[in-house]
């Protein structure tokens, strides 16, 4: 198994089976090996410690890691054995997450230009004390950004499509598109299903 496979995400549940984070497959195996977590067979919901997990038969198409004398399935979901809280987490402010929040739309005119034609605009310009935050930044196309320049939207006749705010999704869903495992869906609240890959 390549090192890139070991860096793929594994969903982490707290002791009450509530999704709280993602970690790498490598770290998930360490958690299971040390007894801090157990691996969940997502098709049957069986819970395994490291020894019983390592003895599972690996299906032909199933991703796995090889030890000296065994093939060990990659855990897609693990459940922590002691931690039962839900950590307070904020979605990291980044261009990728801002693009996702604003759905690749200019927040002034509603156009969807190419990514290279979108920039981050400070609603209250930095020169006037505006911060780089979820509540003050939006995507803007080049024409709207030039028109607004270093002014407030209302000063140039622009209006926001919606008030900027921190995204409602969990940091669990910051996993890049294409790396979210279908088996996670059954462990996520109904309101968040599909958000991980949005």
Could you describe the 3D structure shown?
With 198 residues, the protein is an alpha+beta fold. The protein has two domains: 3-84, no CATH class; 95-156, DNA Binding (I), subunit A (Orthogonal Bundle). It has five helices and nine strands; from the N terminus they run αββαββαβββαββα. The protein starts with a helix and ends in a 50-residue tail after the last helix. The relative contact order is 0.15. Residues 193-198 have low confidence and may be disordered.
Strand order of the largest sheet: 2-1-7-3-4
Q: So what's the overall shape?
A: elongated
How far is the N terminus from the C terminus? 28 Å
Poorly predicted regions:
193-198
- Structural Rg: 22 Å
Order of helices and strands: HEEHEEHEEEHEEH
Helix proportion range: 10-25%
What structural class do helix, strand and pairing data support? alpha+beta
| Beta-strand segment tally | 9
Total count of helical runs of at least 4 residues: 5
Q: Could you describe the largest sheet, including whether it forms a barrel?
A: 5 strands, mixed
The overall pLDDT, averaged over residues, is 84
Number of domains: 2
């Amino acid at each position: 198994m390549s090192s890139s496979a070991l860096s793929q995400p594994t969903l982490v549940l707290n002791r009450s089976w509530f999704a709280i984070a993602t970690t790498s497959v490598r770290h998930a195996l360490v958690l299971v090996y040390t007894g801090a977590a157990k691996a969940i067979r997502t098709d049957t919901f069986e819970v395994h410690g490291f020894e019983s997990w390592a003895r599972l038969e690996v299906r032909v198409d199933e991703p796995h890691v090889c030890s000296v004398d065994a093939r060990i399935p990659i855990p897609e979901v693990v459940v922590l054995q002691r931690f039962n809280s839900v950590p307070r987490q904020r979605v990291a402010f980044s261009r990728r997450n801002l693009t996702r929040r604003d759905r690749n739309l200019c927040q002034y005119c509603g156009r969807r230009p190419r990514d290279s034609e979108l920039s981050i605009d400070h609603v209250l310009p930095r020169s006037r004390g505006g911060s780089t935050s979820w509540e003050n930044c939006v995507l803007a196309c080049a024409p709207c950004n030039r028109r607004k320049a270093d002014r407030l939207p209302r000063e140039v006749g622009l209006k926001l499509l919606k008030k900027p705010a921190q995204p409602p999704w969990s940091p669990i869903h910051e996993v890049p598109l294409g790396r979210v495992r279908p088996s996670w869906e059954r462990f996520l609240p109904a309101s968040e299903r599909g958000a991980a890959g949005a």
